[in-house]
Amino acid sequence: MKSELHVPSDLKFLTIVENWLLSCLEVQFNDSVDWSKQSSRLRLALVEAYSNVVRHAHKDQPYLPVLIRLELRDQDIALEVWDHGQGFDLSNYLPPSPTDRQEGGYGWLIMHRLMDKVEYQLQVNGGNCLKLVVSLPEVAQSA
Q: Does 119 map to a domain?
């Protein structure tokens, strides 16, 4: 299954983004996934990605839409979040240290902890793409 959502760069659309993701996943996976364990982690990763686009990539261009693509195959989920900002230079990224009182930089760390694979590509077909990939464990069937 594939689906995509074009949404304005405005945090008041965050609930729409979350509901779209969870609705698509529930339709596709139904009872084969333990949603009590998986929905929070998937929502958090997507919320972090979307809010970073709104707050950073499209900060000076709120009229630009955010494109979110979802591809589901078996138990695998691939989410792409596309923006039209200048992009984020990963070579300048410093992970937050527990001893520092750093305000930013936690999103990248959170997404890496929640997902199996995180990729970021600058300037692909006129946009930047953050790809989040995870394989969900199947619910154990009771005998």
A: yes
